[in-house]
Structures are given as structure tokens and as C-alpha cells.
Design goal:
heterodimer; A: mainly alpha; about 65% helix; B: mainly alpha; Four Helix Bundle (Hemerythrin (Met), subunit A); 6 helices
């Protein structure tokens, strides 16, 4: 199809001319409804929170590095782990992934913007204000009466600790309201992504030709509707409890603390998949391009993603095996949790089969992608261990669990995110990130990661509970915690190299050109960075790899599909 | 670095029409899915706490069937549908009339809810703090009523545009998006009615 088509220049040379400066630039960014600018704002805002929450993690690791330590006070420690968890999930994970989605989806499906550009800006700003509100609690958490205090109820804020009696002051309200705002923003963006993917595709971009990146964000967005809404509902209930004196989670009046756990984890576990599906999405694009092969098993990948979406809605209570749900409940959630590993395993094998026999180019994005594959496998295996209820009874709320989910969130999702940064940075800025610095970043980070999170499993097995402030010497935990702390420092160095690389390459990086990786999806067909309107002429697509067709008119994909 | 032309293929043949769904309608269905999940959680909480109140009053002692309000709200679904189909045929006057009736019916429903709450609060002394029944009753019915308020605001705006002659056949799809939301609010009421006033009593 593309063979006979005439070809038009996509770059309008007048595009970059309209740059304003000074206050004009600020106004331009504050008032923009352009999906690319909003995407970049999402990413930058998430990066700022990533550094903040990372610093909080470092403080906690310093506190725990040696026994009987008093580096911070117990109250500060409680606030640290609450803010670290809440920030990382709601103000780093979701915005950074939706930032990439915002930026890339219209480009990948050949559209000029999202379906609802103004809703897009609204969603971004309400999420951003949510994050700012959460950190405002440091100054205003006790109202006008005294010094501020951040929330200290833990990121899943179990009842009845969140009741007014046990958490006086306003810090818990800051937490509730900021999560509520973030939820509204997330739902808005998810609506936007689904409407964009369904209604804005360019000619020929059928659902079976969508890049897998777009498919996975579509599935993740659909999950947002059914997963984030329960959290919104639960936060409304908690606010009613705290302000109007209702009794949803008030155990004194017959309310149920377990109901909050159910409502929270109905959100909480699908949320993990909402975060990990976009990470899969990055890997789906990066692995084929750097293996020089088309993705193996496209239909199986789509089916597995949709399967994960459905199954993950029925696994939440594996966070609650120790509550005492009875054999029937436990058995159901053991089974459903184990079943979710089947579609995930399909994805794993498909990625390996894509690399198999390929001409692998080990550039920085691919190195992070391979790190992802390895670590995601281990994270999945410890997940299967924990899905067995009797095993979970032993290790629930221990450092083993903490190590497991950080293996997913850092080892898999953050590695995929770093890969995405190195891969799409040239598209967003027009310049390459430094390969040398990228490799330093990779090696520091992967060594630090394994020092921290491999060895974190062991104190968990030895009985160290999560969220403890300090511990006595002689329990066999001290050396492991010291290694974990050293690993955290090494990761910090890696992250600093990464941040330096981001800034340095913006000014000094090699000019990238439109298609530095010789890739195949539509975003590489336009200039880097793309002009405001993305494509001068709306493209037409004849296969899953439109740019391959264009570069190889003698053997286009469209003749095989 | 590969040298690739920055090019996009442009199709010459346009014999196959490329039709995609209306983004407003898709977006509204997504919003409905998200809202339905919120309501589902409140309904689950209502059912879970049925009969678990430690003190009275019980639903059977103070709740009455809101027959008039229910009839008003459900028939407003018909009138908003009439407004959309009238606009599709270009009959703006009939559309304006149907919208006006819809707004009145919706307002009548809100009035019955307000009267019910006034009775419960001031005559029965039954509030959200009284017991678990009060907690779940006021939050579920209140959540629904707040959605009715939002719908009424938009319907009133549509009516004002329509009466000032700014609405034409081209806006039929937009009005359909709004009517979808209104149908959803009605459908939720059917669930709330069954759970609170039939099953719960």
C-alpha cells in the first residue's frame, strides 16, 4: 500500500521559528493544551518527585544501616515511609507513565493531538496540585496551631489509625485530598487515552496494527476506570468519616476496618499492573528495535495484556491473607494470583523469542531493557512464592515483601523507565543522551540495585518486620541492612549521573535527527522534536511497522499481514 | 545513525472510507465506567452494613418509598431521549420543549429527595452520624443526588442555548453525549432504589 503512495515532506521549516522568551515561555507552558508539552510537564514533575521520594528512601536506609540508630526520630521515620510510598505510587509512577503515554500515543497513531486537549491540561494540573498539596502538609499539617507534620499513617492508611481520634490534626486529610485529586487527574487522562486510541487513529491504523505500546496503555487506562474509582470512593468515605462523623471505618460504631483494606487493595493491586503495563509497553517497543526483529507473537502479546487486565482485578485480597478470610477466600485469591503469572509468562517468552536470533545492539536503552527482563523474572518468582497463603502467613509485612515489590517497582518498572528515557529522549529534545554517561548510570544503578534489593530479602526471611524504626544488635540483621544501605548509596550515584546526563545532553548532546535508532513506528517519521501539529500531512498506514515499509519498499510488512 | 528521509506516506486512494466512533460518546462511556465503579463501592458498603447498625433507627422504621420522585426521574430519561431525536431531525423547538420538561422533572426529583432529607433530619433526628444506616444511606443517596445536580446544570445550559437559538442539527451528537450521562444517572437511581428502598427495607 505504501509502495505506490507518493511521499510528502513532513517537516514544516517555519515550525521552530515562533519561540517566545522570558515570561512568554512560562505563559506558553502554563496555558498549553499540546499533548507533547503536557507529556513533558508530566515527566518533569514526576522526576522532581522521584528525586524527593528517593531522598526519603535514602534517609530511611541511613536510619536502618546500623542497629540502635537514632539518625531521625521515630515520628519522622513514620512520615518518611508514608511520604515515600505515597509519592512514588501516586506522584511518580502514574504521572511519569502517563507522561510518556501522552507524548507518544498521538505520535504513534498518527494523530495531531489527544481527543480532549483541554481535559488533558486539566488532568495534568489537578494531579500536579495533588502532589503539591501532599507536600504542603510538611508546613501546614497541623493547621494554624503549630508546626506542620506530614502524614504518618502508611501509604495504605489502614483504618482505624486514620480515624480522627488516632490521627488528629490535618496531615491525614492532606493525604486523603491529594490522593483524591490525583485520582481525578488519573481518571481524566485515562478517559482521554481511551478516546484517543479509539477515535483518533490515522487512516489504515486498525486495532490490529496499533503499536503494542498503544495497546498496553489502552489496557492500563481501561483498568484505571475500574481500579482507581474504588480508591476515590474509599477516600470520599474516609473524608466523610473525618469531617461529618460518619462511621464507615469506625470500629466503635460497628464499622469495619477490613472493609477499608478491601477497598484499598481493590485499587492497590490493579494499580501495580497499571504501573507495570506501561513498563511492558516501553519494552515492547525497545526490544524489537534493538534486536532488529519484529516483535514475536503480536496477537499473543495483545491477548496476554488484556488477560492481565482482567485477571489482575481479582487478585487484591492476596494482600490480606493474614486477616483471616477463611479457606474459601484464601484459596480463590491464591489461585487467581497464580493464574496472573500465566499471561505474564507469555510476555516473558515473547520478549526472549524476539531477542533470539536477532542482531542485538547493546545501546543504553537495550541494556536497561535486558536488566528489566532479568529482574522482572525474579520479581515474578518471589511473587509466586508470596501468592501461596501459608508462605505469606510467615512473611507478610516482613522485609521479604518489601524486597519483592521493590524488585517489581525498581527492578522492572524503573529500569523500563530508564530505557524509555534513553530511547525517546532524542525524539523529545532533538538531542541524544550521552552513551558513556548512560553506561556509567546503568552499571552503578544495576550494581546498587542488586546490593540493595537482593540482600533485602534475607532480613525478611530472618524475621525483620517492615516499617520498624530501629532494631537491636545480635539478631543477624545488621550486616544485611548495612549492605542494603550501601546499595542505596550506589543507586543514588547512578541516579545523579542520570540527572546530570539529562541536563547535560539537553545542551550538549549530539543532534539526533528524526530517526536515530532506525526504528519502525510513526513517531520517528516526524522531526525531533516534532512540530506543534506532529504531522504536516496525516499519514496512512499499511502495516504494524509503517516506517519499515517506507524504508524497504521492496519487502514491506504490508505484504505479509 | 541511519539516513532516513523524514517522510510520511500519503494515500492516493480514498475509496475505502475510514470511519471512527465519535470521541465524545466514547469518552462519556469511559466516564460512565469510572463513575459506575464509584457507585458500586458505595452500594457494596451499603449492602455490607445492612443490619449491622448498633443503634436504631432501622430503614424499615423511617424510610418511605419515593414513588413520585422515581416516576419523575425515570420519565425524564424519555424526555431527554425525545430532545435528542427531535434535534437529529432538526426540530429545534421540540428539542427545547423536551429539554425544559427534562429539567423540570429532574428538579422535581431533587425536590422529593430534599423533602425526604428534611423530614429525616428535622423530624426524625436521623443524620449521617446516627448509625451505620445513616452513614451509608446519606452517602449513597447524596452521591446520586450530586450527580443529578451536575446533570441538571448541564441540561439547563443546553436548554438556555436551545431557547436562545444557538442549537442546531449539528449539535445532536453533543446532546446525545449529555443524554448518555443522564440515562446513566437514571440507571443508577434504579439500583439505588432497589438496594435502599426495596432490598434494604
Amino acid at each position: 500500500m505504501a509502495k505506490e503512495a507518493p511521499v510528502l515532506e513532513a517537516i514544516d521549516q517555519t515550525a521552530p521559528a515562533g519561540h517566545s522568551s522570558g515570561p512568554g515561555v512560562v505563559y506558553e507552558w502554563l496555558s498549553t493544551v499540546d499533548h507533547k508539552k503536557i507529556g513533558i510537564m508530566y515527566i518533569v514533575y514526576a522526576l522532581i518527585f522521584l528525586v524527593l521520594a528517593g531522598a526519603q528512601a535514602l534517609l530511611m536506609r541511613i536510619q536502618l544501616a546500623v542497629p540502635n540508630n537514632h539518625f531521625v526520630t521515630p515520628q519522622v521515620f513514620n512520615r518518611l515511609f508514608t511520604m515515600h510510598g505515597s509519592t512514588m505510587v501516586f506522584f511518580v509512577g502514574i504521572p511519569i507513565l502517563f507522561g510518556f503515554g501522552n507524548y507518544l500515543i498521538p505520535l504513534m497513531i498518527g494523530a495531531r493531538d489527544m481527543a480532549f486537549p483541554r481535559l488533558n491540561a486539566f488532568s495534568f494540573w489537578i494531579s500536579a496540585f495533588g502532589g503539591i498539596l501532599l507536600y504542603l502538609s510538611y508546613f501546614a499539617g497541623s493547621g494554624l496551631y503549630g508546626a506542620g507534620s506530614a502524614p504518618d499513617v502508611g501509604w495504605f492508611a489502614y483504618a482505624p489509625l486514620t480515624a480522627k481520634v488516632f490521627s488528629p490534626g490535618h496531615s491525614t486529610d492532606y493525604w486523603t485530598l491529594s490522593i483524591l485529586m490525583s485520582g481525578i487527574g488519573t481518571t481524566g487522562t485515562a478517559i482521554n487515552i481511551v478516546a484517543t486510541v479509539i477515535c483518533m487513529r490515522c487512516k489504515g491504523m486498525t486495532m490490529t496494527r496499533l503499536p503494542l505500546f498503544v495497546w498496553l496503555l489502552l489496557v492500563a487506562s481501561c483498568m484505571v476506570f475500574v481500579a482507581v474509582s474504588p480508591l476515590t470512593a474509599a477516600q470520599i468515605m474516609l473524608t466523610l468519616d473525618r469531617y461529618l462523623g460518619s462511621h464507615f471505618f469506625d470500629t466503635q460504631a460497628g464499622g469495619s476496618a477490613v472493609l477499608w483494606m478491601h477497598f484499598f487493595w481493590i485499587f492497590g493491586h490493579p494499580e501495580v499492573y497499571i504501573l507495570v503495563l506501561p513498563a511492558f509497553a516501553f519494552i515492547n517497543e525497545i526490544v524489537p528495535v534493538f534486536s532488529r526483529k519484529a516483535i514475536f507473537g503480536y496477537p499473543a502479546m495483545v491477548a496476554a495484556s488484556v488477560g492481565i487486565g482482567f485477571i489482575s482485578l481479582s487478585v487484591w485480597a492476596h494482600h490480606m491473607f493474614t486477616v483471616g478470610m477463611g479457606p474459601a477466600g484464601n484459596t480463590f485469591f491464591v489461585f487467581s494470583t497464580m493464574v496472573v503469572s500465566v499471561p505474564t509468562g507469555i510476555k516473558m517468552f515473547n520478549w526472549l523469542a524476539t531477542i533470539w536470533g536477532g542482531k542485538v545492539r547493546f545501546r543504553t536503552p537495550m541494556m536497561f531493557a535486558v536488566g528489566f527482563l532479568f529482574q522482572f523474572l525474579i520479581a515474578g518468582l518471589t511473587g509466586i512464592m508470596l501468592s501461596a497463603a501459608p508462605f505469606d502467613w510467615q512473611l507478610s509485612a516482613s522485609y521479604f515483601v518489601v524486597a519483592h515489590f521493590h524488585y517489581v517497582l525498581v527492578g522492572a518498572i524503573l529500569f523500563a523507565l530508564f530505557a524509555a528515557f534513553y530511547y525517546w529522549y532524542p525524539k523529545m529534545t532533538g538531542r541524544m543522551m550521552s552513551e558513556t554517561l548512560g553506561k556509567w548510570h546503568f552499571w552503578f544503578f544495576i550494581i546498587g540495585f542488586h546490593l540493595t534489593f537482593d540482600f533485602m530479602h534475607i532480613p525478611g526471611l530472618l524475621g525483620m518486620p517492615r516499617r520498624i524504626y530501629t532494631y537491636e544488635a545480635g539478631r543477624g540483621w545488621e550486616y544485611w541492612n548495612l549492605i542494603v544501605g550501601i546499595g542505596a548509596l550506589v543507586q543514588t550515584i547512578g541516579t545523579l549521573i542520570f540527572v546530570y546526563n539529562l541536563v547535560h545532553s539537553y545542551f550538549r548532546g549530539k543532534i539526533a535527527g528524526p530517526d536515530p535508532w532506525d526504528a519502525w513506528t510513526l513517531e520517528w517519521s516526524t522531526a525531533s522534536p516534532p512540530p506543534l501539529y506532529n504531522f504536516a500531512v496525516e499519514p496512512t498506514v499499511g502495516s504494524r511497522r509503517p516506517l519499515w515499509d517506507l524504508k524497504h519498499p521492496e519487502d514491506p510488512d504490508s505484504s505479509y499481514e | 545513525m541511519m539516513q532516513t528521509p523524514v517522510t510520511v506516506p500519503v494515500s492516493v486512494d480514498s475509496e475505502t472510507p475510514w470511519v471512527l466512533p465519535n470521541r465524545g460518546i466514547v469518552g462519556m462511556w469511559c466516564l460512565i465506567a469510572a463513575e459506575a465503579a464509584i457507585f458500586l463501592i458505595f452500594v457494596v458498603a451499603y449492602i455490607y452494613y445492612l443490619g449491622k447498625s448498633l443503634t436504631g433507627p432501622l430503614p424499615s422504621q423511617i424510610l418511605e418509598l419515593p414513588i413520585v420522585g422515581t416516576i419523575c426521574l425515570l420519565s425524564s430519561s424519555l424526555t431527554v431521549h425525545a430532545a435528542v431525536s427531535a434535534l437529529r431531525k432538526g426540530k429545534v423547538q421540540r428539542c427545547t420543549l423536551a429539554l425544559a420538561v427534562t429539567v423540570l422533572l429532574g428538579a422535581a426529583f431533587l425536590w422529593t429527595t430534599a423533602a425526604e432529607w428534611h423530614h429525616l433530619i428535622y423530624e426524625e433526628g436521623f443524620t449521617i452520624r446516627t448509625n451505620l444506616f445513616g452513614t451509608t444511606y446519606y452517602s449513597l443517596v447524596g452521591l446520586h443526588a450530586s450527580h443529578v445536580v451536575v446533570g441538571l446544570l448541564f441540561l439547563t445550559a443546553a436548554f438556555l442555548f436551545s431557547v436562545s437559538g444557538r442549537v442546531g442539527e449539528v449539535h445532536a451528537e453533543r446532546l446525545e453525549v449529555l443524554s448518555l450521562y443522564w440515562h446513566f444517572v437514571d440507571a443508577v437511581w434504579v439500583v439505588v432504589f432497589l438496594v435502599v428502598y426495596v432490598l434494604g427495607r
